Amino acid sequence: MKTNEAVRDRILRLCQEHDMTINRLATVSALPPSSIKNILYGKSRNPKLLTIKLICDGLGITLGQFFTAPEFDNLEHFIATDSWSTPLSSSFIISQKDVSASA
């Protein structure tokens, strides 16, 4: 699952749990309805943390509670993990001797 899809699914589930419409969520979150709808319909592919925080405030939950959910357990990786699994090349390692010599 992609991150924006997880955020969308989490917002929809929280609205359902709180028996709240999207327009009501926007009102209690001090956001224009279009901001939330843009997240839900995929127009906003990278919602700002501040927007999610305002949504959390409107729902009466913390950011931790928002992100501690099954939707965020199996997100797609954006960085290939195999490129990070190899040790650093010796050309990237700078010793104290190299730093002292250049000073």
Explain what you see.
- This protein is mostly helical and 103 residues long.
- The chain starts with a helix and ends with a helix.
- Helix content is 52%, strand content 0%.
- About 5% of the residues have low confidence.
Question: Can you give me a brief rundown of this structure?
Answer:
With 103 residues, the protein is mostly helical.
Provide the fold topology.
Blueprint lengths: L2 H15 L4 H8 L3 H8 L8 H11 L3 H5 L28 H7 L1
Helix pairs in contact: 2-3, 2-4
Q: What kind of sheet is the major sheet?
A: none
* Helicity range: 40-55%
Mean pLDDT, to the nearest integer, reads 85
User: Judging from the principal axes of the Cα atoms, what is the shape?
Assistant: globular
Radius of gyration: 21 Å
SSE series: HHHHHH
SS-derived structural category: mainly alpha
% residues in beta strands: under 5%
> Helix tally?
6
Number of strands: 0
Properties at a glance:
mainly alpha, 103 residues, globular, 0% strand
